[in-house]
Specification:
By secondary structure, the chain is an alpha/beta fold. Helices cover 46% and strands 14% of the residues. It has an eight-stranded mixed β-sheet, sandwiched between helices. It has a four-stranded mixed β-sheet with strand order 5-14-7-8. Strands 9-10 form a two-stranded antiparallel ribbon. Strand 9 and strand 10 form a beta hairpin. Helix 13 runs antiparallel to helix 14. The radius of gyration is 35 Å and the shape is elongated. It comes from Felis catus. This is Glycosyltransferase 2-like domain-containing protein. Keywords: Disulfide bond, Membrane, Transmembrane, Transmembrane helix. InterPro entries: Glyco_trans_2-like, Nucleotide-diphossugar_trans.
Length: 424
Amino acid sequence: MAVARKIKTLLTVNILVFVGIIVFSVYCRLQDRSEGLVQTVRSTDRRVRSRHAKAGALADREAILERLDHLEEVVYNQLNGLAKPIGLVEGPGGLGQGGMAATLREDSQETESKYEEYGYNAQLSDRISLDRTIPDYRPKKCRQVTHTADLPQISVVFIFVNEALSVILRSVHSVVNRTPSRLLKEVILVDDNSDSAELKTSLDQYVNRRYPGLVKIVRNSRREGLIRARLQGWKAATAPVVGFFDAHVEFGTGWAEPALTRIQEDRRRIVLPAIDNIKYDTFEVQQYASAAHGYNWGLWCMYIIPPQDWLDRGDEAAPIRTPAMIGCSFVVDREYFGDIGLLDPGMEVYGGENIELGMRLLTSTNAPAAARFFHGVPGLPAGLSLHRAMQTRPLGGRTFVSTLSPFVSGLSEKLSDRSKGLNP
């Protein structure tokens, strides 16, 4: 009996232990499931809250955007009120957006007369917004480059005489819109004694109200010519770097930073932005291939194939060293420009500075592909003689031409004799 009782007790204990193990195992599983359920509930709650927060943020964003749109509309209406009285358009939209070709519904006698007066379709220009968008033709690598924050400021100088008002103002709008405000110190308009009435009061009133303190106008009391007008702009400039441009251009995105970077690296550089074309009749923007600048025996500047070492590098974003320059666009350190003697004030007709300045610097000019702007060229006069295109006195006639080729030494002596007659 005692043995049976012991066996019964052991069985009972084993059964209780076994049941306890099962109960404990079930409890653990329930606990795990409970924690998982709690985590699921919490996660669901967080998602719900996140959705509500996103919805709230989205609603706030929509409200902010709506207010900004309203503010933009108010500002645009106020600004457009400046352009409307002078028959022009500003703000987004309209003809010629994205640099696309634009046309008027029908030509008129006024269109033809403006063609003859300006050398381009001025009536169409008046219908194109001063703030139109243009394509970004910079190489991909240029768009990815970051520039330092301590770049020098620039004064942008535009030279004009009897240009269409809309073309001048589009030049101004584009440089202001596409130049960081911290870098653009001022815009200087040099009026070389224009005859047009709208380039007097209308221009003054517009820029003074639209860009107070930023845009300055310098007016020559007599017709000085392009070269001396540029020198007037240099005198008026106060930034450490000066950019000289014709007043019928439009600037591309990010044009200023690479140009200023090159000058910051070496103040002895003169930088020429890459030039694309604006068609004179439709104002369509056309991309030009990367090129250097050379000149022919008439001393007219022309595009030439970039140097072989540049082609061998295979880097289209690299600057191109070029022996000549296009006078309608160059950027230079202001003090250095004075140190090398500026431009020759004796040159009466445009074109000579393309060669003179390039020869002075002995191929030290740079043309970065990232600094792009778009240039519209009116009809060019033909038949200008060599001594009108460039005065040879400052370059020393014989030395200049014989340096180009020893086979023209006789011609160089004739040019030197002519220059003496032209420059007493």
